[in-house]
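Supplementary Data S3. Sequence and C-alpha cells for construct A.
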Amino acid sequence: MRAIGVVGSPRRNGNTEILTNHALKAIAEEGLETELITLSGLDIRPCNACGVCREEERCTIEDDLFPLYNRIKEADAVILASPVYYGSATALMKAFMERTGHIGNPRRVFAGKVGGPLVVTRRAGENFTHAQLAFWFHLLGFYVPGSTYWNVAFGREKGEVTKDEEGMNTAWNFGKNIAFLLKKLKG
C-alpha cells in the first residue's frame, strides 16, 4: 500500500512540505510506503477545456502533469497540501486538481482510494482552502478520514509550522487515520 503527499506550494522545504512530511511519517510508521511530490518548479498549466479527457484518458497539454496523474492513480492514498494564497489554494494546486480530476473522474479511477487535505496558513483563509481541497476528494469518490481537528496548521516563515503543536498533532493523527482506514479497506 502506498500513500502520496502532493505539495502545491511554490516554495520548496517550506511549511506545507514540512507538515505533509509529518503526516507521511505517521503513515510510514504504520508500514505503508510513502512518497512526497512537490509541484514547485514543475510546469503544470491550467485546463484549456478542450474536452479530450472526457473521451480518452489523456490530456492534450504537454507539460509535467500526466506522469503525476499516473502516479496518484496508482497510489492507494493521496494527500493534497496547499498553503493559503489570497484565501485559496495555490494556482499550482488548482491546476493540478482540475486536470487530474477531469482526466480521472469520467473513469472513476480515484473512487475507493483514501485521502484528504492539509492546509497551512499564516493567519486566515484556511477553512475555505480546506473545503476547496476536500471537495475535490469528495467529488472523485475518495474516502476521507477525519483527525482531531481541521487539517490546518499555522506558520509563515519556513519552519514556523513546527511551533503549532496542535496543527502538527492534527496532521500526525490525520496520517494515522489514513493508514488505519486504508488497512481496513485493503485488509
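Construct B, processed identically:
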Amino acid sequence: MRGQSRSLSTHKKPSSSNSRPSNHAGFWTVRRAVAELRRHGNRRNVEGMARFGIRSKKICGVSKPKMDEVARRIGRNHSLGLALWKTGIHDARLLGMLISDAPQVTSRQMELWVRDFDNWDVCDGTCCHLFVDAKPAWEKAFAWTKRQQEFQKRAGFALAAFLAIHDKVAKNAPFRRFLTVIEREAWDERNFVRKAVNWALRNIGKRNRLLNRAAIDTAERIRREGTPAGRWIATDALRELNSDAVQSRLRRKSRRPNSNGRK
C-alpha cells in the first residue's frame, strides 16, 4: 500500500453519464441504496479488508466493481450522498462520496465528514474522488495536518498528494509551502500518518523539476533530523525522487511549453 485506497485508489473524473443527476433520482432512497449494498456484501470481503487495516463498526464488504456499478446506476445525487454518509455504514459512505457533487461540497461538509474518517480506505477514497475537486481543498489540506486524530491528519496529507496530481492549474508556491508542513510533521510515527506524509512528499516531488529539487532538499533535511519516522519517510522518498525513471520523466516534461513556469 503506497497511499492508495483498496477499492477507490484511482482518481477518475466522473463520466458524463454519472456527472448529471440521475433520471431515476427519486427511485433511489437511502433504504434502497443500503439494501442494494447489503445484497452485494460479502463476509469474505470484510475479512480480507480487515487484513489490510480497513475496519469499521458497520461494514458490508462490497467489492469495487459492485460499488462502481451501483454508483453508475444511481448517478450524481448529492443529497442522497449526504444521507448515505449519515448512516455510518462504511460501504454506504463510500457510495455516498462517489455520487456526491464536488462543486456542492462546502467547508462545513468537509469538516463534518473528516471527523468520521475511521480507516484509510474511506479517508483516501473521499479525498481522491470528492474533496480534491472541492473549492476548500487547499485550505483543508493545510488545516488538517495539524489535527491530532490519526485519520484526520492523514486526510490533510492525502489531499495534498492528490492535489499534486490533479490540480493542473496550481502554481508551485502552495506546494512549496506544503513542503514546510511535511518537514514539520515528519516526526509522527503513526503508520497511517507517516505513510501519507511520505506520499505527499513523493507526489509533490514528481510534479515538475523545480518541485523535485525542493522535495529532495526537504527529504534530506528530514533525514538529517534523525527521527525514526523521518528517516523512513526521507529514505523512501529519496529513492523514488532521485530514480532514473522519475528524473527522465521530469526532463521530458520540462521540454514542454510552460511545464516549469508556475512559480
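The chain has two domains: 1-135, 137-263. DSSP finds 14 helices and no strands in the chain.
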